[in-house]
Amino acid sequence: MEFDEMLSALSREGALFATAINAVGVDAPVPTCPEWTVRDLVLHQGEVHRWAATVVAGAIPKPSAVPDDVVGEVPTDDMLADWLIAGLDGLIRTLRAAPADLAAFTFLNDAPPARKFWARRQLHETEMHRVDAESAAGAFTPFEPASAEDGVDEMLTGFAPRKHTPLHADGAHTLQIELTDSPRRWRMTISEEPPRTDRLAAGDDSGADCTVSGTAADMYRALWNRADGNVLAVRGDRSVLDLFRSSVKIRWS
Questions:
Q1: Does domain 147-247 match CATH 3.30.1050.10?
Q2: How does pLDDT run along the chain (253 residues), one tens digit per residue?
Q3: Cβ-based neighbours of 144, under 8 Å, separated by 6 or more
Q4: Superfamily of domain 3-141
Q5: What does each C-alpha distance from 176 to 51, 54, 72, 184, 225 come to in angstroms?
Q6: Whether the Cβ atoms of residue 190 and residue 167 lie closer than 8 Å to each other
Q7: Where along the chain do its domains lie?
Q8: Residue 76 burial (CB < 10 Å; 0-12/13-18/19+)?
């Protein structure tokens, strides 16, 4: 996705998030985030938006340099949706104003330049927490296909291969991810070492221990554990997919 596309998608996700908050109320439990209410979810996401905006605006070089209090005054419950959107709008303005060659810290493997990294990371963070808010009403608004595809790529090439991800196995096991509505494919090698993900070229069909296929939207939610793995088609050793889903737990920083 291009930078401007990410910001447009981020604005859309914020509107969907606010709609979900107003539909279910802040006391509703969040099935996809056990022990959280919608209030907890909104406070978390609003803090993340403001934290990321602070990093971008200040070209901050490391997490420890971020000021302790970036949230400010927390609003009353009836203003939480507006507070969320205010923080998101501020983030989008900050990203638009940032130079293309912004020098600020990033924290994922294979990360794009900092300005695009933070636009991408906040888009996918907001998308998944919008899904969490909608889960309180048992609903799901489909992702834009390009955004879902990019979210799959970020998960597989950015999050999963980090050295502290507890995804390991004796010997080498391969997990291949294929999208049914896109030609994009990836192959992850899981071993005693940190996981390694390769983007596959067209026609590369050397096989894997486990091959998983599905639409970009279903794959995206399933890899983030926001959808049951049964939405995906699995060929080969399903335990490799189960190992991934049980080991890769996303953290926003």
A1: yes
A2: 999 999 999 999 999 999 999 999 999 999 999 889 999 999 999 999 999 999 999 999 999 999 988 888 889 999 999 999 999 999 999 999 999 999 999 999 999 999 999 999 999 999 999 999 999 999 899 999 999 999 999 999 999 998 888 999 999 999 999 999 999 999 999 999 999 999 998 777 778 999 999 999 999 999 999 988 789 999 999 999 999 999 987 654 3
A3: 9, 12
A4: dinb family like domain (1.20.120.450)
A5: 35, 37, 44, 11, 17
A6: yes
A7: 3-141, 147-247
A8: exposed
What kind and span of H or E run contains 45? helix 38-58
The crossing angle, in degrees rounded to 10, of helices 114-135 and 38-58 is: 170
* In the block, residue with structure tokens 């209030």: 39
What is the C-alpha to C-alpha distance for residues 108 and 202, in angstroms, rounded to an integer? 25
Q: Of 193, 187, 175, nearest to 240 (Cα)?
A: 175
Strand, helix or coil at 76?
coil
Interatomic CA distance for residues 32 and 34, integer angstroms: 6
pTM recorded for the entire structure: 0.94
Contact by Cβ (8 Å): 227, 216: no
Instruction: Copy the structure tokens of residue 220.
Output: 């995206």
CA–CA gap between residue 176 and residue 72 (Å, rounded) = 44
